[in-house]
Amino acid sequence: MTTATPSAGLNSRQVHDLVISVLEDMKAVDISIIDVKGKNSLTDEMVIASGTSSRHLSALADDLVKKAKQAGVPPLGVEGKNGSDWVLVDLNDVIVHLMLPRARLFYNLEKLWSASEAQRNEG
Questions:
Q1: Of 78, 84, 30, which is closest to residue 53 (Cα–Cα)?
Q2: Going from the N-terminus, what domains does the chain have, and what CATH number goes with each?
């Protein structure tokens, strides 16, 4: 994975800081950061945060997309907006999962991605 987003010259840490700042400003709940370098070829880091409603998730995603574009980091994609219980914003080096608490509990991405390779291949 690259450590710089070509369009803006922002490194992974700067993209990370932007994401966390936006989520904190917009009152996202239970922000979790998972380093996935070497565990997949898509991204270096996943950020998972909860919203209080579908509208809150949509507002979080909208603000994140707006501020990322302003910083020169246009998202590669946004999935699941408008009434969804899970919105994904792909910022290349950082993939952001915005979820309602029930979806977050059901999918349990933190456990999935923090498990070792051997644990993921078991059972």
A1: 84
A2: 4-114 (3.30.460.10)
Secondary structure (DSSP) of 38-100: TTBSS-SEEEEEE-SSHHHHHHHHHHHHHHHHHTT---SEEES-SS-SEEEEE-SSEEEEEE-
Q: What does the alpha-carbon distance between residue 28 and residue 48 come to, in Å, rounded to a whole number?
A: 10
* Coil vs helix vs strand at 111: helix
* pLDDT of residue 116 exceeding 90: no
Report if pTM > 0.85. Answer: no
The three-state secondary structure class of 32 is: strand
Is residue 55 pLDDT above 50, yes or no?
yes
Q: Could you read off the pLDDT of 2-39 as tens digits, one per residue?
A: 444 444 458 888 999 999 999 999 999 999 998 887 77
